[in-house]
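Field: COMPLEX_INPUT
Field: COMPONENT_COUNT = two
Field: RESIDUE_TOTAL = 497
Field: MODE = joint
Values follow.
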Amino acid sequence: MTNAIEAMGLQKRYGSFTLGPLSFTLPGGCVLGLLGENGAGKTTTLALLLGAVRPDGGTVRVLGHDFSEDPRRWKEDIGVVFDEPGLPEPLTAGELGRVFAGIYRQWDAAEYDRLLRRLELPKDKPFKTFSRGMRMKLGIAASLSHRAKLLLLDEPTGGLDPVVRDEVVTLFADFTRDEDHAILISSHIVSDLEKLCDYVAFLHKGQMTLYSEKDALLDEYALWHCTAAELAALPEEAVAGARVTEFGAEAAVRRSAVPRGASLSPVTLEELFVLSTKKAAAKEKGDQK
Amino acid sequence: MKGLVTKDLLVLWKTSRIYLFLILLFCAMGCIGEKTSWTFLFYPVLLSGTLAVSAASYDERSRWLRYSTSLPCTRGQAVAAKYVVGLVCTVFGYAVMLLGILAAQIIHGRLPGEEALILLAIGPAVAFLLDGVMLPLIFWLGTEKGRVAYIFAIIVVSALVGFFVFALASPEGIALPRAAYFLAPLCGAAVYGASWGISTAIYRRKEL
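Field: COMPLEX_OUTPUT
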């Protein structure tokens, strides 16, 4: 199975902000979750993968293609949902179907109609009258109706109520049942990523602070409630992040590094992300001093 | 590219019906009125010519430009779609103008003659010129920043049209050789073609 995405030293500079260098791969048939706070560089990463912006360094291959190649050769196989879908406001879902039929050679009108029905989207109402949830659902329906092999999703579940979010996550899970299909998804909603992802990458101020297989990561790390002194005794690289208060410490730590008999509880992806991001921010402040 | 053109034409059909009304209104005013009212027949082709710029504005407002980076289309095709839409709209405006000239002939029982020649030659030339100037600016600066340039271009082109139309139509005005009337639309088309190339070069380098 080939890699859906291969990024090597990918870099982009905007004034004082530098994204990367980022190196990661998304194996075919897998889901990679990109987690990061606002402005961490998630959207810029997607823009680089799509060739919408030119990198200042590094290389990227998407479905085996370099983005300098003719996009008609490789974008046919990619479905994209942005945080704002970006579909023409005056057009109805039915009219958008006609537009996409003229753009994608592999457009599947029957599948599009089926998804519109499944997501309860009207075919005859203009996009501008849609709620945020309906807009996202239409963007998702369009991305799944041209037999894409790779989905690039930028906050696709943002603004959706929990029931719709669950439905959408199920759609993505169905999509990855085919072993040729892969997804790169960026989101703030860690619970969605926890359900979907095989791999996770944490972005903080343009830097990838962690990239790992999700299950291995959750096996490797645990949450340790300890004293500040016990925490200080651990080597720094064994601590993904910690919250220290006057009552003690709560730390995401490597299971193998803690003393035998220590009481550990499973760590969630959200805890790991929050604690490691705080550690990276504190380290930055320390470096600046 | 077929899909991109379809999208623009559908968006224009749904959002620019007021333009259609104005085009028909000016056409009616041009063919029913007497004396200098024939100059109203310029407006169908001028207004139609600006519709490609309106389509670009809607793209920006809908954030379509970012979405289009995900589509299996080249930047060249994205630019070509706007120029094809501009061409379709100009041809539509030209057809309306022709109908207006024919209606004027039927209503007033005479051929507008020299006036018709000016309309048929200068009308499309000006429409091509307007789009030819505006579209590269829109692709370069976007519709917000390009708006000032757009208004400036409209004023300059309108002033030029006014000058040429009255200078050519009045008996003591400029007497152009017949060949100039045939060359005018060709020059407009050449500007349009060059503009297409410039827009493509600009858009290929643009970060979206």
